[in-house]
Amino acid sequence: MKKTLLAVTALAVMAFGSACGAGQDLPGDPAGEELVVVGMSQVGAESDWRVANSESMKAVFTEENGYRLLFEDARQKQENQITAIRRFIQQQVDYIVLMPISETGWDSVLQEAREAGIPVILVDRMVDVEDESLYVAHIGSDFWREGEAAVDWIAGTYPDRGTPVRIVHIQGTLGSTAQLGRTAALVEAAEAHESWELLAQLDGDFTQAKAYEVMTEYLERLPAGYEIDVVYCENDNEAFGAIQALEEGGYICGSGGVDVITFDATRNALTECMKGRISLAVECNPLLGPLVEETIQALEAGQTPERHRYAEERTFTPDQLTEAFIAGRTY
Ligand code: AHR
């Protein structure tokens, strides 16, 4: 499967000239050395989780470990991801690793990768394609189960006693697996619990700025002092934006005030959780680089890798956290 770097570089230069795409970033080739060439299309850098995920990949796919990584940041645009995949095909990479921004719209380009004989490995989120053999493996999180952990916490914290549980829901990037799974768990639970009231579903796009903006606008429309019990944020950065908006709107975040729920559980969110401003942090593990490498190694050895691998994840409440634990967290 390995190709000489010279061939990859020459093809990149032929296809794109010297000022376009990954080809321009290829430094000099170590003479005669053969590396496994991995073309990686990352969503962007919208969240602390995403940054940790990219770092995990870059730490594993190094020349010392036998890889040439062609890393492309799509700046949260699917069309940029599709362009990157086509570039990787032109460059005849050995593997394409795709973190898909959303589930739909991948059939054609993944078909092109297959016709070029390049295995595609999905990381983090999933794709919804007619032919599931268009990718060889998926490594990520079970987002529905993460959502289930969050709604179980709400159900335990607010036992059904007839009093309403007023919930504001800030969604992640619409159509992404992370959003679909976490949203489905909440919507199903809200239907099952008569006292749960979904006050609003706001689009926070997994960013702090957007969550702050939509939450601020929403609070401005509410009557002064309107009670909110839970804000269900689909990632940490949304939680940071929501907390800022809530506090500016006169709300207190934490037990006895508004229970903010978050997903990811990165270090900054765990710090807020330990302080009590976040009531529940559901872990979503970004450190997927080693699992992706194991998959590539299995393919290099001619083995069939596991089709879906899910990272181990847990939940955190303020009483479970210590400064020492948070300091030891790598993301
Ligand atoms: O797909 C994983 C999600 O995407 C993380 O929860 C979020 O922070 C990221 O942007």
Tell me about this structure.
It is built from eleven helices and 13 strands. The strands form two sheets. Strands 1, 2, 3, 4, 5, 6 and 12 form a seven-stranded mixed β-sheet that branches. Strands 8-7-9-10-11-13 form a six-stranded mixed β-sheet, sandwiched between helices. Helix 2 runs parallel beside helix 10 and helix 3 packs parallel to helix 4. The longest helix has 16 residues. About 7% of the residues have low confidence. The structure holds alpha-L-arabinofuranose. Alpha-L-arabinofuranose binds next to helix 2 and strand 10.
Topology, pairings included?
Blueprint: E1 3-4, H1 5-16, E2 34-42, H2 48-60, E3 67-73, H3 78-90, E4 95-98, H4 107-115, E5 120-124, E6 137-140, H5 143-157, E7 165-171, H6 177-192, E8 196-203, H7 208-221, E9 230-233, H8 236-248, E10 259-264, H9 267-275, E11 280-283, H10 289-300, E12 308-310, E13 315-316, H11 323-327
Parallel strand pairs: 2-3, 2-4, 4-5, 5-6, 6-12, 7-8, 7-9, 9-10, 10-11
Antiparallel strand pairs: 1-2, 11-13
Helix pairs in contact: 2-10, 3-4, 5-6, 7-8
Residues 46-47, 49-50, 124-125, 178, 206, 235, 263-264, 284 line the site of alpha-L-arabinofuranose (AHR).
